[in-house]
Amino acid sequence: MYIYRRIQNLMRKSIPNLITLLNALCGWLAIYYSSKGAFDYAAGLLVIAAVFDFLDGFLAKRLNAFSKEGALLDSMADLISFGAAPALFILFRFESLDYFIPLVISSGFLFACALWRLVRYTLRAAEIKPYFEGMPTPAMTLSVVGTSYFLTSLTSLEHSQEVLVAVVLSVILGLWMISKIPTLSFKVNEWSFSENWQRYSFVTVTVLGFVFLGISGMPVVLGAYLLFSLFLKS
């Protein structure tokens, strides 16, 4: 019985870590496909990585499988999927010899801010708050992917204009990540409408935005994310 309990406990604690490794694998493959110009595959993998990132935390909580190793592994996986991968996604997606230096600097800045945010988040993991301080890296990654498709869907934009928006977006998202602005988090225990109207409102705007506007609704979603975050109680 002792050996059985030990094996059962080991398996229980390993499940979240295995999902975290799948997150990292998706990020690594997203980098590969971005470098090959297969941006649809890269974007899909980053979305899947975000799902895995949610699941590993959810299961770790449900299974009571928290560990220092798991927390460190989660940060390393996030650095790949939500640090290096989105920065390189921007660099390869809008690659241009004429604007190479601004793209390298801005995407490098985005990666550095993601790294700084992950370090800060890991060190403060024990602090329980109903919101994030600054934009979480998965949200930044989804914003990068969504906005890039929005830009390329605007046939009226020249490539130089797309690059300019990508550079500015990288700087804004980077600063948002390392800021201490209270930002929407869905890691809450109380789901009453009175305590979470900002979250329910954001989800509603997101669904309606994508249903009626498609990928063109991305700026609306980003704006709503920031707007409803400003109403959080810090």
Q: How much is the average pLDDT?
A: 86
Number of structurally distinct domains = 1
Measured on Cα atoms, how large is the radius of gyration?
19 Å
Oligomer: single chain
CATH overall fold name: Four Helix Bundle (Hemerythrin (Met), subunit A)
Helix content: over 70%
Low-confidence stretches: none
Fourth CATH level, the homologous superfamily:
CDP-alcohol phosphotransferase transmembrane (TM) domain
Task: Provide the structure class.
Answer: mainly alpha
The total beta strand count reads: 2
Q: SSE order in H/E notation? A: HHHHEHHEHH
Query: What is the distance, rounded to the nearest whole angstrom, between the alpha carbons of the first and last residues?
Result: 48 Å
CATH class: Mainly Alpha
Main sheet: strands, sense, barrel: 2 strands, antiparallel
CATH structural architecture: Up-down Bundle
Beta-sheet strand percentage? Answer: under 5%
Shape: globular
Largest sheet strand order: 1-2
SS element count, helices: 8
